[in-house]
Amino acid sequence: xxxxxxxxxxxxxxxxxxxxxxxxxxxxxxxxxxxxxxxxxxxxxxxxxxxxxxxxxxxxxxxxxxxxxxxxxxxxxxxxxxxxxxxxxxxxxxxxxxxxxxxxxxxxxxxxxxxxxxxxxxxxxxxxxxxxxxxxxxxxxxxxxxxxxxxxxxxxxxxxxxxxxxxxxxxxxxxxxxxxxxxxxxxxxxxxxxxxxxxxxxxxxxxxxxxxxxxxxxxxxxxxxxxxxxxxxxxxxxxxxxxxxx
Length: 246
Fold this sequence. Notes:
The chain has two domains: 2-115, no CATH class; 164-244, Immunoglobulin-like (Sandwich). The chain contains no helices and 22 strands. The chain is an all-beta fold and 246 residues long. 0% of the residues lie in helices and 42% in strands. The protein is globular, with a radius of gyration of 20 Å. It has strands spanning 2-3, 6-8, 11-12, 19-21, 26-30, 33-35, 38-39, 51-53, 59-63, 66-68, 78-79, 83-85, 88-89, 105-107, 112-115, 164-168, 175-182, 186-194, 199-208, 211-218, 225-233, 236-244. A four-stranded parallel sheet has the order 1-5-9-12, with no helix packed on it. The two termini are 36 Å apart.
């Protein structure tokens, strides 16, 4: 049994960069997030970037998983026979409760695989599974969304201590929301560049209060690719990456 794991950014040459179930194996996966794993070979034999299930009476089942953004020459998410329910798989998968919608991670490129508050994976797990620690229906994936902490961070009683920056969904198409947090009132500049360093757009320029803010990055007229967003506040600057996938 493989349960409550983040399995991401792994590389294999041919098969099963995320999980490779060997021949005649019995595997159960529950509440795992399997993303951004890649089989690098250009051979037609490469398959199952996320999960590869061997033949020979292998049994592979489970529920409440997210299997997304994996890649290989063939069958990028899953190769082989699986019996998954209440899971999010980008290529679609037959089975009770399965969905193919974007899981809406907070920041895939930055490695933050927590779910955004609008994620379709929240409360979408098997209703017969144990409840999440916050007492709500099980979420899909390894990291549950805590409804108890999902409060509006613009609340003046909650003051941030550090500057933070993220974009969601990530990847996006065609609109991303860039969220940033300011520890003090300051003059802010939020600029987006393409991967070559060319200025794409300026999303904020002026004085802003302490707290959390949002800006909309519309990529409707832009080409697919990686974009860099950079936040400057006083003498501090941080940046992040987001991917436009059309």
